[in-house]
Amino acid sequence: MRNKSLILAVLLLSLVPCVWPQATKAPFLSRHASIAAGSHGVVVSGKPAATAAGIKILQQGGNAADAGAATLLALSVTSVGAFCVGGEIPILVYSADQKSVKLLEGQGEAPRDPKAIAWYMKHGIPDGDVKAAAVPGTIDAIVTLLKLYGTKSFEEVVQPTLAILDAGGPTWYIDTGSGERIETGVHWQADLAVTYRKLVDSEKAAKGTRQQKLQAVSDRFYRGDIADALEAWYIEKGGFLRKQDLAAHKTPVVDPLKTTYRGYEVYKAGPLTQGPYLSQTLRLLEGFDLKKMGFNSADYIHTVIEAEKLALADRDEYYGDPNYAKVPMQLLLSDQYTNMRRELIDPKRASLELRPGDPYNMKATRPPTITGPWHGGTTVMCVTDKFGNVIAATPSGLSSTAGVAGRTGIIHGSRLSSLNTFAGTPNVIQAGKRPRITLSPTLLFRDNHPVMAISVAGGDQQDQAAIQVILDYVEFGMKPEEAFSAPRFSTTHFISSFSQERAELGSLSLPNALPEEVQADLRARGHVITMSREAVGGVALIGIDPKAKQATAVGPAAGEME
């Protein structure tokens, strides 16, 4: 990525006409969206203040990585409960200069103390408690993004967030689980501002290159006095994390998973996330004429849901931290396995069982390993710049009841609840292991050019929404704002990624706007139907027209630079 001087203005506006595939005539739900379009750079995120932070950095000559870092930092203080400093961020980055896509795995680990792991296996992973906190992944992920792709300093990209904190907002509440909400107090904003200024001071005091100065930011957080303060809080609150866990943390930078669909290239995070099941689903669907079936017809919905069920079953059976689990990714995506699994989709009957396959022995099905017993927030961000760089990230922190870490102002998530306690399974909790997260940004390319960046909030529903956005665009020629607003359907026919829960098998949630005859057809095929007014997944996306060099951002809060 490179930097050029820009003096540009922020503008939130209606869609500027662009050249896109032929538009579908499908009916759309009325869904509020902020839309921005331009050729100099757009930002979309879960909060207007965070989008404004990213736009400000673009105005100051920063590139997509700089703007992404600023947006993420601002989201960490404006989307508390959905994302926080103690959370995690998988980040997909396309570098126009390098003509390559990389994945920054901004995910923290479980404690390394074997006694802690033994406690979890005996007592379970308490949802929301400090014991469910993983090592905070946010700061090192942002530093890594800046080191590898950015041009700005940490001091520069954190300024918009400091302005938000100095203004004293927003207030954060803890949900006690009994309907009561407890205000944590206003001091956390001032305390977090002090922590961020300590990081800035370390960057300014460090000797050497820009990268070495940025590394000083991460070192102070994970290996310095801030880590000391966090460890003291962990001990006080009965948590298992220690300074050695923080000190060992480093954001891996890896090649993403790349697959194709109808001539498009799809980039996803690997099996550390649920992302590959999107790729598996698209591979299965490529054998059907979805366009001929028609948008949201009974045949279309049935086929997509049945393909998702098969891919989700493989997710639950095989995905986990690849540093600890052998994940047969190439086999799962192979032609032989895909063709065999595709034959399981009955066009007339809904599946009412979990059906993972056996890629090792190339068998269509095998009994699921996890059979019970069963036990009882995320935000979005995408950025482009005038240089052609594109970033999609899905920041999260889950909601935690642990409170603020002493006087650091740092709030933790409860991501360890995405691990399980089923011994011998790929996602069982182990010392230093990273949870298999639902967070799964997407980049879509055509002829080696990015055409769409997608980020979705919504736990297990994230990639179900992303799959439909891709199909809306590729199969039905929808524009970005149409794909955003198009009615979506979903299933909970899988093992939950949180608290080891499993929903009813055969479930299918449909949008209320769906015609009665379609609903009746799907019921007749055996789907367990519920109707919903709610949108599936909190989608944010950027559509990119390579020929017109125009980008359109659609989502909760979109901004453009002229």
From TrEMBL:
Gene3D superfamilies: 1.10.246.130, 3.60.20.40. Residues 1-21 form the signal peptide. The keyword Signal applies. Pfam families: G_glu_transpept (PF01019). It comes from the Bacteria. The keyword Secreted does not apply. Keywords: Signal. This is Gamma-glutamyltransferase 2.
